[in-house]
Design brief:
Elements (H helix, E strand, L loop, with lengths): L17 H23 L6 H8 L3 H7 L3 H14 L1 H9 L5 H18 L1 H11 L13 H16 L9 H23 L4 H16 L3
The protein binds 4-(Hydroxymethyl)-2-propylfuran-3-carboxylic acid.
The site of 4-(Hydroxymethyl)-2-propylfuran-3-carboxylic acid (LUB) has 10 residues, from helix 7, helix 8 and helix 9.
């Protein structure tokens, strides 16, 4: 008599609570949407594409995200949410202010190189005028964070005394945004770490206290 290899009832994992299953489903849909948005861009993607990629019906996707705009907003929100734990982890290292600033930028570069949600959020923000709903205001979060970190480094004597922290933050954000975008277009971000490293070294060579 062949034995089924299905575990007996008492050995099966208990089903996750309904809310947890819904959370996992939303996360799965969002990850698939991010992969497709990052690869093809907002205009050419349909909810059916997302449903197919998630191996779900369109109706099941609609249950969690009412339309494509809602998916785009959620992906962009997840893009920004990525920075919170990364920054907290760097700050927990007990580095000097300048080391913290540089380590946060290094972490951002790695995320842009390798994280699909970060890459998708960046592409959607470039395509924001094509998305018929409000997206979070871009760049301002990084400008505020980097201004604060640069102020801490200046007050610690780690930057030239004539450094304007807000101006330094604006230069870093503009250079970083442009560098990751150019790397994406020209090499699919294959050379991002090299391009980021040279911009970081040139910028900080000019402002670091001697
Ligand atoms: C960053 C992008 C892509 C700014 O903060 C943002 O909104 C950003 C998406 O809009 O690069 C540079 C760190």
């Amino acid at each position: 008599m062949p034995t089924t290899n299905r575990p007996s009832a008492e050995k099966q994992q208990p089903r996750a609570p309904k809310q947890e299953r819904a959370r996992r489903t939303r996360a799965h849909i969002l990850q698939v949407a991010a992969e497709i948005f990052a690869e093809r861009g907002y205009p050419s993607v349909s909810l059916q594409d997302v449903a197919d990629g998630a191996a779900m019906t369109k109706g099941a996707v609609y249950f969690h995200y009412t339309n494509k705009e809602a998916l785009a907003v959620a992906v962009v929100q997840e893009h920004y949410a990525h920075w919170v734990p990364m920054i907290a982890e760097v700050r927990a290292r007990g580095l000097t202010p300048l080391e913290t600033l540089l380590a946060v930028l290094d972490g951002a570069a790695e995320a842009f190189r390798s994280d699909t949600m970060v890459q998708a959020g960046a592409r959607l923000q470039i395509e924001r005028s094509l998305i018929g709903t409000d997206l979070p205001t871009p760049y301002v979060g990084w400008l505020e964070l980097l201004t604060g970190l640069a102020t801490e480094a200046l007050e610690a004597g780690q930057l030239r005394p004539d450094t304007d922290p807000a101006a330094l933050a604006r230069v870093i954000v503009a250079a970083f945004f442009g560098t990751q975008h150019i790397s994406d277009i020209l090499t699919g971000r294959a050379d991002l770490i090299e391009r980021y490293t040279e911009l970081r070294d040139i910028i900080f060579r000019g402002v670091t206290a001697t």
